[in-house]
Amino acid sequence: MFATSANAALEIEISGGSAIQIPIAILPMAEPANSQKSRLHEIISNDLRGSGMFRIINTSGMPALPTNASQIKYTDWTALKAQGLSLGEVQQVGGNLKVSVQVMDVLRQTALLQLTYTVSPSQYRHVAHLIADQIYEKFTGQPGAFATRIAYVTKVGKRFTLQIADYDGFNSQTLVSSNEPIISPAWSPDGTKMAYVSFEKKKPIVFVQSLYTGERKVVANFKGNNSAPAWSPDGSKLAVVLTYGANSQIYTISADGSNLQQVTKSSSIDTEPAFSPDGQYIYFSSDRGGRPQIYKVPASGGSASRVTFEGGYNVSPRFSPDGKYLTYIRNDGGSFKVAVQDLGTGDVKLLSNGSLDESPTFAPNARTIMYATRVGGKGTLATVTVDGLVRQRLSEAGGDIREPAWGPAQAAPK
After folding, report:
1. pLDDT, tens digit, for every residue of 294-333?
2. How far is CA 78 from the centre of its chain?
3. 331, 322 Cβ separation under 8 angstroms
4. Could you give the CA distance from residue 16 to residue 20 in angstroms, rounded to a whole number?
5. What is the pLDDT of residue 107?
């Protein structure tokens, strides 16, 4: 699927937490002796703990742990104030793994979830993330985003790589590598392709590459610079920034590189396009008012209108998948921070606490924003929930990390 792969995860530091955390016990499962090094219940626990919404109960002092629902002594778990209890087993079935999980409501002593997956050993971590997603949704009423992937650019020495990994940094794989810069990765809505900008031809060119075959195609290589690709919600076209004339303007182009159409026409710098989730508008950054602010224009072209009014510098707009929020970068007293705007109320909140934060991107469940920041002079990734209560920092030894893009939700394996 990709050029290379590795199992090393990004290091994760978690700070903060929801005001109310759901206490849950994730019990070890019976697994084959040759099972993966990371036990399934540990992956599930790490996912839920990292969301800030759950408190994982320590079960090390329990005299005996049940392996099926008939063995549960509910008084033991109510004494620990557990609301939920997850247990199950992993069986070897031919060359596959059969994963069976029950999630119990401790107070009502009833089953909340009964899950069964048959997967290849390579999907071991993915199925753990899927289970965590199901638990998260059952207890919070919101979909989880653990079984998703992220893309990001690393720079080690003079070498740039575009990496794709699980949301937690495991199973990282290199999509493309170059001695010239790679920037602006953007997932197709169906998660099968990646658009990005490469300088390998000594100028910025927009490529689209299949994540399954590795085949890639140049979609924008016009006179001047070609940059900032953003997919339309239906995946049929891209918004791109071209210096086709004299200054940066926004165009749309079909995903195969045909049908170029100009969207903005101004004497200013218009850049960083993002389609609204309904596909009707393109939001973008522009200095047409004197200072960088965010504007929107009909996707077919026309008159632009200003969107941001608080603060003297707002750039890099990105939508939440549900269309309720807009995130962007604001200059707050000389520090560049992640802001989020509730599009229903217009309320704006600053979420990050760095001084050089950039490239915000929403998780598919719209609850978390990932962004690039700098710590100790080194590029790294961080996440923050839209309420600002839970922050995580992800770092990788040996290189700068930048330009994150959170991929769409993935289908469960059959």
Report:
1. 999 999 999 999 999 988 999 999 999 999 999 999 998 8
2. 35
3. no
4. 12
5. 94
The two structure tokens encoding residue 376: 């100790």
Residues 220/205, Cβ–Cβ less than 8 Å: yes
Provide the token pair at 33. 């002796």
pTM attached to this predicted model: 0.90
| Residue 7 DSSP class | -
- Contact predicate 52/17, CB 8 Å: yes
User: DSSP letter at 126?
Assistant: H
Token code pair at residue 178: 């170059």
SS3 (DSSP) at 42? helix
**The amino acid at 13:** E
With a cut of 50, which residues of the chain have pLDDT below it? 1-8, 413-414
Euclidean distance between CA atoms 230 and 193, whole angstroms: 12
Q: What single-letter amino acid sits at 127?
A: V
Distance CA 39, CA 44 (A): 9
Dihedral pair phi/psi, residue 139, rounded to 5°: -90, -25
DSSP-derived 3-state class of residue 308: coil
**Structure tokens given for 83:** 């609301």
Residue at token pair 């794709």: 164
**Crossing angle of helices 124-140/40-50, nearest 10°?**
40
What's 123's DSSP letter?
G
